[in-house]
Amino acid sequence: MMEHIPLNFPFLAAALLVGISFYIIIFKRNLIKLIMGIAMMASGVNLFLVALGYRAGGGAPIYTDAPEGPMVLPVPQALTLTSIVINVAVLALMLTIVIRIYRHTGSLDSEKSRKMKG
Amino acid sequence: MASLITHSPILIIAIPLAAAFLTLPIGMASKKARNALVIVSLTFVVFLVFALARDIAINGIHVYTLGATSPDLTIPTGFMVPVRIILEVDGMSILMGIIWSIVALAAAIFSLSHIASETGQNRFYTLLLLMVAGGFGMMFTGDLFNLFVFLEITSISGAALIAFRTRFADTQEGGFKYIVVSAIASLMVLFAIGLLYGQYNLLNIGALAQVIQYTTPDKIALALLVIAFTIKAGMVPLHLWLPDAYSVAPASITGMLLITSHTCMYAAFRVCFTLYGGMLDTPVVGWIIIIFGLLSMFVGVTMALSQKDVMRFMSYHAISQLGYMWVGVGVGLAVLGNAELVATYGRDAISGGIFHILNDGMYMPLLFFIGGALFHCTGTRDLTKMGGLAHKLKWTTMLFIIGTLCISGIPPLNGFSSKILIYENVYRFHPILTITGIIVSILILASFTKTFHSAFMGAELSEYKEVKEVPRSMIIAMVILAAGIVFITLFPSLIVNWTIHPAADALIDQGAYINAVTGAIP
User: Fold this and answer.
1) A115 and chain B: CB distance < 8 Å anywhere?
2) Which residue, A35, B54, B150, B363, has fewest beta-carbon neighbours within 10 Å?
3) How far is CA B113 from CA B110, B212, B470, in A?
């Protein structure tokens, strides 16, 4: 059991990140903290994807000075890159909207800046 | 022409994408040229979608491999599995494509006058076309990762469009809620994709469906995918963001957002039927979907009864309409394992649910557009402040009556033909479903009668003496959708035979979808 822990460490870290970010998203009332929670969640998922890319015995898929032996398929890395780019766009848009909300309501508290109910 | 149809899946996505980035330079030079570009490109997309639909009706599933020497070469030479990006269009995808192309064209035409007084119109059309491209991508893609990418494209452009009118505080709040919910849902989808990739080293839906085992991680992935798409579609109890986001968006965008809800629902069906299919514990998953549907139907309509804001009122009705589709398709999913029951009522229940997507995709955007037209004329969304508008808005009133009769399922309009198909077949599964459906239908009619009365009937109000009929482009957009309604009303059996049954069969027949990818080894 113990010998699996180093191998599973990235997955545990990813689960921890996603768990903490869920807590932040649900319980924090500050909109900037909410956005930070989503950024953390994205990092957790990205870490999960990168960790999936490693297969026991496989080398990094870089052809320059490559050692002998099989290489892993670089699909998860490609996915992670795409996902990082998308998340940058999402976070930028969120922050833009938060600036607008602050200008309209003068508050970043999700309870105070709420207009719509029912 | 033949090569145009061969390449049409990618062209349908690429043309709006290319036009999106052309609107900015062209719009700076001339406003008229930009409008013409938007309308012409979307009209061409409508034409391509119909040409592709005809081809699929004749030749079956259309597979398009990007970057391959020949578009049907799904598995590259020397590989055992599909590694390229594959677009796979079957009966169900193309039905969604038909709805999306028509609504997108109508929304673009409606926007011509609806946002005529706003700043930054070039960017509005850029975002609109990006959203069109993203929606088509979600419908046509054959692999899970591109589903995620196109989901994000649709969400980002959708959120930016909701928050487009930055001078109002509520639009910013609605846009923020939408992007937060979308971001969380998309990350759940990505996590589920990671779980599936980690086990099978595959991303292609067809190839994954062939090897999937329904292990514990697969079940977690299924739960994550279904919940994520349920959040994005806006089903009760995960609907709280939907009225806030839909009611503040420009009306043309609300119509399109509704179809993105349908598209997320389509993605959930694709996951349940095509990806998991026979492996699924179908009664359990089917009942979960049915319960989501029942809750949405009932909670949506009861919340709508008390609304004063016309767009909010219609948003809640949109939620309750989504419930009908989930109940219809959920019943089909619940009996999927039993071939005999599928033949007796499962297939028809699915057909009813899918037919309702088509009908809802015509009348619900029409009603949203009418809400936008009322806002355009009166400057308010508050129903209590409106009144006597039928004297001035003759076209809008007529179209509103058509929409109302459709949504409440009054024969012989198209809303009735799909609801009766759902009622008849879910009754054999469980009578309570039909009873709830009929009660909800009555409540819909009641609430729409109230709205019709408070907005259109009564004496002319003094503050609306100067109101004129809405601009021509708005009427054209609404008439396009109303023409769709009339066409479906006149030829329901034609529509069911040519589009709805192939779509239902595409969902049921998992093998055909898999063979289209893995069987096409040259």
Assistant:
1) yes
2) B54
3) 6, 50, 9
pLDDT at residue B228 greater than cutoff 70: yes
Q: Write out pLDDT tens, residues B349-365.
A: 999 999 999 999 999 99
Classify residue A91 as left (phi > 0), alpha (psi -120 to 50) or beta.
alpha
Q: Can you give the pLDDT at residue B522?
A: 38
> Which of A57, A52, A56 minimizes the C-alpha distance to A74?
A52
* B469 — pLDDT class (breaks 50, 70, 90): confident
Looking at chain A, how many residues does it have?
118
Task: Name the token pair of B58.
Answer: 């004749």
Domains and CATH numbers, chain A: 7-55+71-105 (1.10.287.3510)
Contact A97 B159 (CB under 8 A): yes
In a domain, residue B460? The reply is yes
Cα distance between residue B253 and residue B249, in whole Å: 6
Q: Model's pTM, two decimal places?
A: 0.94
Task: Indicate yes or no: CB of A90 within 8 angstroms of CB of B183.
Answer: yes
Say how far apart CA A55 and CA A77 lie, in whole Å.
13
Looking at the 3D structure of chain B, how many domains does it have?
1
Contact A76, A87 (CB under 8 A): no
> Cis peptide before B237, with omega less than 30 degrees from 0?
yes
Question: Which residues are B511's β-sheet partners?
Answer: none
Task: Give CA angle at B116 (B113, B118), nearest 5°.
Answer: 145
**Mean local confidence (pLDDT), B66-85:** 80
Q: Could you tell me which chain A residue has the CA closest to the CA of B83?
A: A75
- Give me the half-sphere count of Cα atoms (radius 13 Å) on the Cβ side of residue B159: 28
User: Is residue B63 within a helix (H) or strand (E), and if so which, with residue range?
Assistant: strand B62-65
| Tens digit of each residue's pLDDT (9 = 90 or more) over B433-449 | 999 999 999 999 999 99
Going by the DSSP 8-state scheme, the letter that residue A58 receives in this structure is P
Give B-chain residues touching A53 at CB under 8 angstroms. Answer: none
Backbone angles phi, psi at B382, to 5 degrees: -80, 120
Quote the distance between the C-alpha of residue B431 and its chain's center. Answer: 28
What gap in Å lies between CA B40 and CA B279, rounded to an integer? 45
Distance CA B319, CA A67 (A): 57
ipTM of the prediction: 0.93
Nearest CA in chain B to A82: B149
Q: Is B433 helix (H, G, I), strand (E, B) or coil?
A: helix
What phi and psi values does residue B142 have, to the nearest 5 degrees? -105, 0
Domain span at residue B455 reads: 294-490
B156 interface with A at CB cutoff 8 Å: yes
Cα–Cα distance for residue pair B110/B369, rounded to 1 Å: 8
Q: Does residue B462 belong to any structural domain of this protein? A: yes
